[in-house]
Amino acid sequence: MLDAQPSPRISWPRDVDTVVTELRTLAAVGDLDLPLPGGGETPERWAALARLGRRDLALARLAEGHTDAVTILWEAGRKPFSTALYGVWAARSGGTGAELRDGVLSGTVRFCSGAHRLDRALIAALDEERRSVLVEVDLADERVVTVPGTWLPLGMDASDSPDILLGDIEVTPDMIVGEPGFYLDRPGFWLGGIGVGAVWLGGAAGVLDDVLAGLSDPDDHQLAHVGALHTAIRATDALFDQAASIVDEDPLGDNHMLAWICRSAAERAAWEVLDRVPRITGPTPMCRDPRFAQRLADLQVYVRQHHAEKDLAAIGREVVA
Q1: Which residues of the chain are modeled with pLDDT < 70?
Q2: What residues pair up with 104 in beta bridges, in sequence order?
Q3: CA–CA distance, 262 with 243 (Å, rounded to integer)
Q4: Which SUPFAM superfamilies has this protein been placed in (predicted)?
Q5: To 5 degrees, how large is the angle CA 141–CA 145–CA 151?
């Protein structure tokens, strides 16, 4: 899945405008038109997402959200708006989340990546019966309001992921994507989760690329860490290749366990990178190379989208059962 050579870096200094400009360029030339998961070319899809993560994680975060939205629309028998950049906003953390009551969408949604720059979003809301309902929203609507002060990170800063306040948006039938429960019940939900893991793995490989580019006359301890990281990344890469073959053989199968394993393996590889890389480099590049320090910070923030011990416990529960 991972290419032998690293991807070209996004221009620096990087901010959300730089990232979105690059994202629109990729979309215009067709580089975001990825094969559908489970359609026989799943390895190519995940490889493309990994390449984006290896290039820049903020760019990859927005690209992954857009490509996931396009896939969701396809699964629902719909087409995206031409030239529009999409996000998928579904977080329900800390008691927040969108609600759909009597045809009105409201609430606060956290971690809405691309909030100030994207064109449209698929927003997961709970209806009166606590079913998940997916709503397509035009982000030019003045009732979609970003909440100041809710995205102030060092890592993944350029992903532009603040809270969004939905101010009683009237939802017409054409805004509803699929039936109630469609978003979580479709087979593509778990496949999309593996795609996020592919981005994490690409991000981990990108940090190692930078280490290798700056390494000269390494000692045995540094070489040992490089060997451990290469092994962790390549082993996880092989797992993703195997998972892609399984998915393409049975795209409608129950892939939730496969998704948990792939995501957990990618998270483990990322943390190997975050733990070992500073031991290889020492503090100098983290203090004098802002691009390198940014990549480390991005990876640490983004990989926390993994549910950590909660997902590991779910895997263990199924293994024991």
Answers
A1: none
A2: 101, 170
A3: 8
A4: Acyl-CoA dehydrogenase C-terminal domain-like, Acyl-CoA dehydrogenase NM domain-like
A5: 140
